[in-house]
Sequence to fold (100 residues):
Amino acid sequence: MSLPLTRKSTDRSGTEQFAFSFFCDRCGKEWRSETLPFNYGYFTAIENDIARQFLWAHEHKAAFEQANLDARFQYNLCPVCGKRVCNDCLCNRDVCKDCN
Ligand SMILES: [Zn+2]
Ligand SMILES: [Zn+2]
Fold:
């Protein structure tokens, strides 16, 4: 699995769906990824728990990677301090307000 884009992130996934929260490195503003349903690997029926857990882990990983990519559009990388900051924390010079 990739490292989360922001320093703080939360896994909000459950047994039936996947969702993740990311937090601005500067102000802590939360962004939640789109909630994706657990598709059971597109099988119609799953016989045992081990298969189910395997499929869940597989889809969970894919959902996290997608959320982590989407988070790039929510948080800007400050080239000075390396923080990932939300638009509120960004100055018009494309650096965060701490580095302005
Ligand atoms: Zn912020
Ligand atoms: Zn900065």
Q: What stands out?
A: The pocket of zinc ion (ligand 2) is lined by residues 78, 80-81, 83, 95-96, 98-99 (CB under 6 Å). Residues 22 and 28 are 9 Å apart (CA to CA). The two ends are 33 Å apart (CA to CA). The mean pLDDT is 93.
